[in-house]
Write a structure and sequence with these properties.
By secondary structure, the chain is of the alpha/beta class. It has helices at residues 30-41, 50-56, 88-91, 108-112, 130-139, 151-159; strands spanning 4-11, 16-18, 45-49, 73-77, 98-102, 116-119, 144-147, 165-170, 180-181, 196-205, 208-216. The chain has a single domain, classed as Dihydrofolate Reductase, subunit A. Bound molecules: NADP nicotinamide-adenine-dinucleotide phosphate. NADP nicotinamide-adenine-dinucleotide phosphate (NAP) binds at residues 10, 17-18, 22, 24, 27, 48-52, 55-56, 77-80, 82, 127-128, 130, 148-153, 156, 180, 184. NADP nicotinamide-adenine-dinucleotide phosphate is lined by residues 10, 17-18, 22, 24, 27, 48-52, 55-56, 77-80, 82, 127-128, 130, 148-153, 156, 180, 184.
Length: 217
């Protein structure tokens, strides 16, 4: 048993989530970002990788007027607990729950700040085993999980066949090959092994395009 997983992507036309130097705020427009907040509000938890937490220092809260009462749990995949005690996530952990998923014993500095640290088994790559993470989260009553990136974490969920839906906001800009890809390596052996999706809808949202896909299994 695992939560239902939605992968949210906010990219350029060529599927990049940041410039080569890591700048990503903001690729999509205000209306797309408002939809992103509505998506957050409709999930039990939001998950990002430590790469995103370090690059963007995000809050991962719902800041859409009228939906502020619906704050999902904020989760960071962070093998070595690199999340800074001075990050906005840690500084707000007592207002809205923050969970760090690691393979180490919990760091006292995170625990003191009110962060919940979940220690799980390491996979072959030395990082939290995805199956174990998802089973842990489901065991804590989380039914729906919104994965907000970055590319490495998105790639890991897709490689593990753990993405049920994609919500893709695509801005009419190009960032080129030096931009960061929205999905890291999938380690595909051939075309037939590619994860497949069925488009549910495609609609303009401001200047951007919002596409929704369900996994085909
Ligand atoms: N456009 C957008 O909406 C958007 C959204 C999100 C991010 N971004 C951008 O994306 C960039 C960050 O992406 P990223 O790919 O570098 O980082 P990421 O996917 O956010 O984080 C990757 C890190 O997560 C940790 N991790 C822990 N468990 C993992 C697992 N099982 N599988 C994979 N990774 C795991 C790893 O570090 P450890 O080995 O130390 O644990 C890994 O290096 C930033 O520039 C950010 O601005 C853009």
């Amino acid at each position: 048993m695992r939560p239902r997983v939605t992968l949210k992507l906010a990219t350029s036309l060529d599927g990049r989530i940041a410039t080569g130097s890591g700048e990503s705020q903001w690729i999509t427009g205000e209306k797309a970002r408002a939809e992103g907040h509505r998506l957050r509000a409709s999930h039990d938890a939001i998950l990002v990788g430590i790469g995103t937490a370090l690059a963007d220092d995000p809050l991962l809260t719902v800041r859409q007027p009228g939906l502020e009462h619906r704050q999902p749990i904020r989760i960071v995949m962070d093998s070595r607990q690199r999340l800074s005690p001075d990050s906005r996530l840690v500084l707000t952990a007592r207002e809205s729950p923050v969970v760090v998923v690691t393979v180490q014993l919990p760091a006292p500095s995170l625990l003191r700040a009110g962060v919940e640290v979940i220690q799980v088994h390491a996979g072959r790559d030395g990082r939290p085993s995805l199956n174990h993470v998802l089973t842990e989260l489901r065991g804590r009553g989380l039914i729906s999980l919104l994965v907000e990136g970055g590319g490495e974490v998105a790639g890991r969920f897709l490689r593990g066949d753990a993405v049920d839906r994609i919500e893709w906001f695509r801005a009419p800009i190009l960032l080129g090959a030096e931009g960061r890809p929205c999905v890291a390596s999938l380690e595909l052996a051939n075309l037939a092994a590619a994860p497949k999706f069925r488009r549910l809808s495609a609609e303009p949202v401001g200047d951007d395009l919002w596409e929704r896909y369900d996994a085909v299994r």
